[in-house]
Sequence to fold (694 residues):
Amino acid sequence: TIFHQLSVPRTFPPLTTPHTLHTHSTHQSIPMTQKTQSPFGSWKSPISPQLITQSSISFVEAKSYNNNLYFIEMRPSEKGRYVLRRFNAAETDRSIDDVKATNGVNVRGRVHEYGSDAWLVLEKQLPVKGLRNADQEQVLYSDFETQSLYLNERLIEDGTKTERRYANGVEDAVNDSFIYVCEDHSVVSKGEAKEPKNSIVQWKYDAEKDTFSLTTIAEGHDFYSSPALSSDGQRIAFVAWNHPQMPWDSTVLYEYNRSTGETTKIAGDGEESIMFPTYSPDDTLYFISDRSDGYWNIHRAGQDQQVECIFQKKAEFTSPAWRFGFVTFAFLDKDTLFCVHGSDQGAQLIKYDIPNRKATNQNAPFLSMSFLQLSQDKSKLFFIGGHPTEPTAVAEYNISTGEFHKIRVECEVDIDKSYYSVPQSLTFPSGDGVAYGYFYAPTNPEFEGPDGEKPIVLLKVHGGPTSAASTNFNLKYQFWTSRGIAVFDVNTAGSTGFGRDFRRKLYKNWGVYDIQDCKNAVKFLGQQGLANPKAAVIDGGSAGGYTTLACLAFTDAFAAGCSLYGVADLELLAAHTHKFESRYLDKLIGEYPKEKDIYIKRSPIHSIDSIKAPLLLLQGDEDKIVPPEQAEVMYNTMKEKGSVVALKMFKGEQHGFRGSEAQIQSLEMELYFFSKVLGFQPADNCTQVAIENL
Fold:
């Protein structure tokens, strides 16, 4: 989702909910009584880890087909399975069902290892023989276990397990084919290459033979994404880039002409980040680029291939392309589009008149919106929307009436809103500039802290590091604040949402500026009287876990820390991570092994003796991005030297905890750990973790 600063908390209009989902509390408001004074961290809260996981799902992506909306729902209760669901948008129906064609399947790919956009609902059904449930819809999808590509139950490729992975599919109804990004791992297993081969491919159906055949449309670059198709099926636009670039650094936009067989470069100058090409209804090619003032704005290519910015604004119209299929603009007609961009009041939904360059704010009651999808009849706009005090929702906007409706929410909770902390946007001085963050004050209608004391604060560091903090409703943050622990979700140097210069500020400085910003964040909170700087703790996952470990190794700003699948050894990450991120560190740190000394200097695993604060390590034993051995080395070394340390290795978990058991235990263990090292008594009976040398 697009995440931007929230400068002033606002009151938002209520949303109508056509389904019986608990988007608001059914409890009566808790009467105003004198609060009980209790130490920070010890407040009793109804927001339990079990409630968070049992009532929660996550929306991963959404697409509209034939006026209905399809979306992926990630269910922790089913070990993180990605479930494809359908919202029947007709006013006489409006039901939500699991798509029968993918019953029981984990609809998740593994291109770039992040598993996005692995499904495609066909608008034109093919006369494929013997398909069950074909009367409802035909769905192309990847099965996570095998990575095989299926059309309903029909296997597209020979064999039951393939070494090819697919994502970002586009239907070519004119030619009875499908265009995909393909990541071929067979070249590695055969010894033909050291890393997988990426390309744009086509699967074509032959009705006479009832077979599918595979051909390559584009190859030669290290990476490809975002194939888009003109209405006549003759032109295919796509984005490509090479090591050591990432898609937010430098990409090239190409267009392949089926009639001539030629591929033409449309845009990309070596410094330009281009993403998400789309053809308008009159087949003009539009895309997002940061060539205009360093912000991701909407551009188009004319018939003479001259590129112009059609909506220039010092605001971001998208987020970094960690995932495939992310969409933030959609065409109502050839002259009108809907788009989302950031502002100091959060993301704004805009109806944009292209010829007249006129933007009309639709006043959406959300602070983040993504996966914009117009219904086929252009009467509704679907999207995934977020808000600080309302659960993230799959939502629709009725274009004619201007009404917004929630279709389904991520969590069904019956908690009075007086327990919810509303984020406050803060800008604080750091180094030669500023950094940003969202501060969540301790909030509980029944408790307050002791007179004269300032709260414990948990500093949250987002992953990426090319990513951003979010103001979306987050029960895990409310878990802490309702117990009397403040949360500060920081946007350190390198974060997105603030333009290219701030994003690139981390180049060569990962492990320097982010640590500086975290240290200065604690100092700022103390100066402002918002928190006790001597009771500041820190956590983060993945890249945020690296910053957490680095803050403990290279500063004395924190009383304790928790690393969730965090990077401890930068050398090991550079040498053994997956292809997509294998050269990411070239920009963030330096070329490896040429600048090996910097990698060693900034790796927490080589500075364990400098870590004085207690450390909790939470790790999945099947993590392919950050090897679990890193956590084990950190734990064993700290244990042997007498430092306070704990480790929990979650069986069957990968990079990010998807199962409900791991999510529950990780929250409880972190609370238990901080309570022991900071000396407060939680009101909860937490899952304990063995703490060494306490």
About this structure: The CA atoms of residues 640 and 693 lie 9 Å apart. The longest strand covers residues 197-206. The chain has a mean pLDDT of 92.
